[in-house]
Specification:
This is MalT-like TPR region domain-containing protein. It comes from Streptomyces heliomycini. The chain is an all-alpha fold and 176 residues long. About 25% of the residues have low confidence. It has nine helices and no strands. It has two domains: 59 residues, no CATH class; 117 residues, no CATH class. Helix 2 packs parallel to helix 4, helix 4 runs antiparallel to helix 5 and helix 5 runs antiparallel to helix 6.
Length: 176
């Protein structure tokens, strides 16, 4: 992670002087992801919101989806659980309807990961996502991780389980 931070710092010094708007947006998106990874959630939120609110957003589709997922995930630990999950659901529907299976799978997994991180007791590592068809990694892994375990055909068809989403959100609502 230190190498990524060093590289982005060097790139920022050059791109601030000579970078195109698209390159600057990509840089700020990468900085937002790095800040999130480092646990600097406020910095990540500021960077992601700044890029996403630009009038002339030039990020490629996948990068835009990933940054929007990050923005939705950041709303959850900030106490805006319903807003974050609703944003992630909307992104998942859009990615599914556009038949972008890779981004759609990433988006469907995001709420499960974000909510698991918010509801994990201190001192205990977050639960690992069970692979599709394996719900033996915890007492509630079978239903709580259902949105993350969608098959490509389910994603392409746009199927989703509203009860699963409600069940997934409930522990985070109580924690917030």
């Amino acid at each position: 992670m230190a190498a990524a931070e060093e590289w982005l710092t060097e790139a920022a010094s050059v791109l601030d002087l000579t970078g195109t708007p698209a390159q600057l947006q990509e840089l700020h998106a990468l900085q937002a992801h790095l800040a999130f990874t480092q646990g600097r959630l406020e910095d990540a939120a500021l960077l992601s919101r700044t890029v996403l609110s630009e009038e002339d957003l030039r990020l490629p589709y996948r990068d835009r989806v990933r940054l929007s997922v990050l923005d939705g995930r950041l709303a959850i630990p900030a106490g805006r659980v319903e807003e974050g999950v609703a944003a992630l659901q909307q992104l998942a529907r859009q990615a599914t309807q556009s038949r972008h299976v890779g981004p759609a799978a990433h988006v469907w997994q995001a709420p499960a990961t974000a909510l698991a991180a918010c509801t994990t007791p201190p001192g205990r590592p977050p639960a690992q996502l069970a692979p599709a068809g394996r719900a033996d990694r915890g007492p509630s892994a079978g239903w709580a991780l259902a949105p993350a375990e969608r098959t490509a055909s389910q994603i392409a068809e746009g199927s989703r389980d509203d009860d699963g989403w409600r069940a997934l959100m409930e522990p985070a609502r109580r924690a917030a």
